[in-house]
Amino acid sequence: MDDLPSALLVASLLGYALTALLTEDQLTDYGWRIPFLIGGVLGLLGIWLRRTLDETEQFGDNQARARALKNPLWITLRYHPKAVGQLVGFSMLSTLCYYTFFSALTPFAVKNRDADATDVFLALSIATALFIVLQYPMGALSDRIGRKPQLLVWSAATAILIVPLSTLVRPGLGNLLVAFCVGIALYTAMTSIAPAIMSELFPTELRGLGIGAWYNLTVAIFGGTAPLVIQALARYDLSAMFFWYIAIGAVIAFFAIRTLPETKAAELR
């Protein structure tokens, strides 16, 4: 997962640089195009890298079996309904955390809480750097205490702390640093082990579709609507309710995670 936080750090630093160096008129006129131009070039690089990478040996051994499956999406529901429910349960909270801290909270802080845009991007950049640094120790911690306990702490702590943290989203770099750093640091408990947790839910021949379909559906429903929900609530002066919405999602994720087996020493099926 180190590529994702690195990309997020570059994006937040770019946002900080643009807001610090360009005026509002310059940002509106041409500055907003700069991230898209850089992203387009990096996207082409990503396509080239993906085409040159080799699949795992296990994938190659099961490729023919996977192609022979009929109605694989139905098979995941019929034979692995528990895995589907578990994936949706904890992915819902993971998605809400991601879109809240890395997307929705930035415009919310500026537009609805009158925070300075430069301070917001600086706080996000520092928190994202922390996000990168914590991936490896949090992954190592899960090898010691287990993946399930780590996810339970993440979901429980998010349920308890997300609403108090939201009160710190207001003008002042110190307040923003605490809100972003604590929330994102908690999130690393999930992201540091997410690929392993998801991969262990389904057998190899169903893994790509089982994770891809249900994870992306969850992301679309809960993550894609997060910025819209937070702005809609803000228009009615109910912005605090969004963070209660995340807290409820964290409670649901907690009970979904409780049904997971502990797999820290197990081999993939």
Automatic annotation (TrEMBL):
This protein's name: MFS family permease
The keyword rRNA processing is annotated on this UniProt entry: no
Membrane topology recorded in Swiss-Prot or TrEMBL: Multi-pass membrane protein
Species classification: Bacteria, Bacillati, Actinomycetota, Actinomycetes, Pseudonocardiales
Localization per Swiss-Prot or TrEMBL: Cell membrane
PANTHER family listed in its UniProt record: ALPHA-KETOGLUTARATE PERMEASE
Origin species: Saccharopolyspora phatthalungensis
The organism's place on the tree of life at top rank: Bacteria
InterPro entries per the UniProt record, alphabetical: H+-coupled_symporters (IPR051084), MFS (IPR011701), MFS_dom (IPR020846), MFS_trans_sf (IPR036259), Sugar_transporter_CS (IPR005829)
GO molecular function: symporter activity
